[in-house]
User: What shape does this take?
Amino acid sequence: MNTASATVQAVPMPVVTAMASREAPALAIDCQIATLHYGDFLAVRDSAVPIESGKITGFIGPSGCGKSTVLRSLNRMNDLIHGFRFTGHVHFLGQDIYAKAIDPVVLRRHIGMVFQQPNPFAMSIFDNVAFGLRLNRFKGNLAEKVEKARRGAALWDEVKDKLKANGLSLSGGQQQRLCIARAIATEPTVLLMDEPCSALDPIATRRVEELMLELKERYTIAMVTHNMRQAMRGADKTAFFSVDISQGGRTGYLVEMADTKQIFEAPREELTKQYISGQFS
Assistant: This one.
């Protein structure tokens, strides 16, 4: 079992770059977390979460159960938190993403992320979408790439005539789709979404959910959600996490993972039955 540290390595990642261009295997990410700590705090234990290619995997569970922590482990966002360390492995297309040769910045080009709160930059709509491309020193037709990303994020018709407008001038739902456009502009293999609709109104939420189903045709998606109906509507696979308080702390762990239909209609574990029936939240 490997032990990974949070040290950021500023070296090339040619293997992942090459592998990402191959035909996708059945499993995009093999995540096996034995223990995950922030300093002395055991945040997550015993969580094996395979992310299948071409599918949406939903993470559900009560607050503090480690859903977002596990999600951030999939593209090394936890590296940015002091004291982060874990035992286990995370393999992307068969390669250990925590190996010393891996550059996390390059990795995140292949495993993009959309956050809970829309976070457009204080710059034009065009520059927001082009940000990752410029960061990765894209040398091709930038305008073409930006247009493709905006179309892919269902943001073309609404902003095609105001690309110089500040991204912060958009509505909340538009801002989130702008962030999705920014994430897919680099054409990642996997898209991570951490409660992407929690700050949106019902109409904007529905549009983003529809967009996720469209994006599944081109990307593998892993999504954290507090909305069980959202997982039922959109996820192919669902992982249910809970919280262990037996040792006086709050440690998240995976209870079970299966096809979404099975999780919500015939879960194996009693704890899952209690959660989806609303006995606790």
Summary: The two ends are 33 Å apart (CA to CA). The domain at 3-9+25-276 is CATH 3.40.50.300 (Rossmann fold). The chain has eleven helices and eleven strands.
